[in-house]
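Module 6 notes. Inverse folding takes a fixed backbone as the condition and produces residue identities as the prediction. Think of it as a translation problem where the source language is geometry and the target language is the twenty amino acids. Below is one complete input and output pair. Work through it position by position during the lab.
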């Protein structure tokens, strides 16, 4: 089986699986961070670095997801376009209908990548703001001790 046939048969499943996993991680990490932020007791932390480390735990993974999801989608789009052009060349068929269908199916991968990335970016920024707010509260509490 050559690479084009492999891409034709498997690329959608691979891309959708990766983006689905990224979405699952985003939801799981967001729930975990939300629960953590609502239950945190800032007075238990001795210094600001320790507090900041606890507050920012798992945010790097959210950052990685929102930065890379569009690229995963783009990879699927490029592979889909390659398959479309390969099919056109192999069949000698330059039918605009089949070209447009192939390209539109290829572009769905980019759309899915953006659907994962945009909400993750929003959540990441909300959590960063929450971290800043909680660190300010920690500073205020530690001055009062």
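Target side of the pair, the amino acids:
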């Amino acid at each position: 089986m050559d690479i084009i046939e492999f891409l034709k048969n498997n690329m959608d499943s691979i891309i959708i699986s990766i983006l689905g996993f990224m979405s699952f991680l985003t939801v799981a990490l967001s729930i975990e961070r939300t629960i953590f932020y609502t239950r945190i007791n800032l007075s238990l932390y001795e210094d600001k670095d320790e507090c900041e480390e606890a507050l920012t735990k798992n945010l790097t993974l959210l950052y990685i997801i929102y930065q890379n999801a569009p690229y995963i989608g783009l990879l699927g789009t490029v592979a889909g376009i390659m398959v479309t052009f390969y099919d056109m060349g192999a069949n000698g068929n330059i039918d605009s209908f089949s070209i447009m269908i192939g390209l539109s199916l290829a572009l769905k991968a980019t759309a899915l990548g953006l659907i994962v990335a945009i909400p993750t970016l929003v959540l990441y920024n909300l959590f960063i703001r929450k971290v800043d707010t909680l660190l300010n509260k920690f500073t205020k509490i530690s001055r009062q001790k």
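Reference fact for the lab report: The chain has a mean pLDDT of 91.
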